[in-house]
Design a protein that fits this description.
By secondary structure, this protein is mainly alpha-helical. The chain has 16 helices and two strands.
Length: 356
């Protein structure tokens, strides 16, 4: 066997090992998320619930499990996976580790659209609200994320080449514009809408319900389902658009599919839990250091890692100051901001800044 073949075999083995470890970590995170909180749920009660022996359970624990912990854990699982994999996809698409959906303004576009739905839904957009029902808010957030993603792509791409510097700068500008528009909506919003807007801006899983899980499930399944179809193409894009095309990759179709998936993921997560930043940049970056840039392993690993990290961050957010609950966006920012600064000060970050 050649040296190159042995190296590929070693990387594949390492990739499977990391995936297995992340699966174990996610199982632990799910368990912790269910049993730990301001009111603890003991292991015997959890076992009784899983085995269907509800009669032996304390009624309070049964209500906490069914009405609070399980929906919250389920939603955190979906949102964390969507954030992790969408971050890895964007970084592969733009060939830049800084291309997190939150950093480049995709999330802010989804948040702005959600705020528009909150403020204008009962009045100007009421007919649409009636037609789409529970899906109105996720749909608006999806369209907002999609619009910002396409705007970023158009601004940052010239002659088929995507400028990473233009990507970052245009993302900052778009985030500033959406922030200003959100400020205007806050100015005209009533008290009820203000409370909902505050939720969107800080991010939280406290509003998790089974209905919300059902609403976002198709969007998250979509972004996870396309992993096998985009992984090879994103690997080829590392060499450039022209090289990927000559390798048989349908570049433009790949980009459209990836952008659509990222917009779907961001729209769904923002609609369900508000703006939760840095998951999409921290998880793929750390995993890329461990298993390399191959998206065959990086994308599923980012989904597992993103879900585990968000569940653990949510557990910290609702227990560290119990009975009060910190916004989960604060926890993820504390974890993610140092990693983002490390990326900026690293080789790729310096190259991007030198091109300004």
């Amino acid at each position: 066997m050649s040296t190159l073949g042995r190296r590929d075999g070693d990387r594949s083995a390492l990739g499977f090992i990391v995936l297995a470890l992340l699966a174990v970590l996610l199982a632990i995170a799910i368990f912790v998320s269910i049993v730990i909180g301001p009111t603890g749920v003991g292991l015997p009660h959890l076992i009784a619930y899983v085995t269907g022996d509800h009669a032996s359970m304390d009624q309070q624990n049964l209500i906490i499990l069914e009405a609070v912990r399980l929906p919250r854990t389920g939603m955190g699982l979906l949102i964390g996976a969507a954030l992790g994999v969408s971050g890895a996809m964007m970084q592969g698409l733009f060939r830049n580790p800084l291309a997190d959906p939150g950093i480049v303004g995709v999330t802010s576009g989804a948040a702005l659209a959600a705020v528009i739905a909150i403020v204008l839904g009962p009045t100007l957009l009421f007919p649409l609200q009636v037609v789409f029902g529970e899906q109105f808010l996720p749909l608006m957030a999806f369209l907002g994320g999609l619009g910002n993603t396409f705007l970023l792509y158009v601004i940052a791409t010239r002659n088929g080449q995507t400028s990473t510097t233009a990507l970052i700068l245009s993302g900052i500008a778009i985030a500033a514009m959406t922030g200003a528009a959100t400020g205007l909506l806050i100015f005209i919003a009533d008290d009820r809408a203000l409370r909902d807007i505050t939720f969107w801006s800080l991010g939280s899983l406290s509003g998790a319900t089974t209905d919300k899980i059902i609403a976002i499930l198709p969007f998250v399944v979509f972004v996870l389902a396309i992993i096998p179809f985009v992984a090879r193409g994103l690997d080829a894009l590392i060499l450039g658009d022209a090289a990927a095309f000559h390798m048989g990759v349908p570049v433009q179709r790949l980009k459209r599919m990836t952008i659509l998936a990222v917009a779907a993921a961001c729209g769904a997560t923002v609609a369900a839990a508000g703006s939760i930043g840095f998951i999409g940049i921290v998880v793929p970056h750390l995993l890329r250091l461990a298993i390399g840039p191959s998206h065959r392993f990086l994308l599923p690993a980012s989904a597992l890692g993103g879900a585990a990290l968000l569940l653990l961050a949510d557990t910290v957010a609702r227990t560290i100051a119990a009975p009060a609950e910190l916004p989960i966006g604060i926890i993820t920012a504390i974890l993610g901001a140092p990693v983002f600064l490390m990326l900026l000060l690293g080789k790729q970050g310096r190259q991007a800044m030198e091109g300004l």
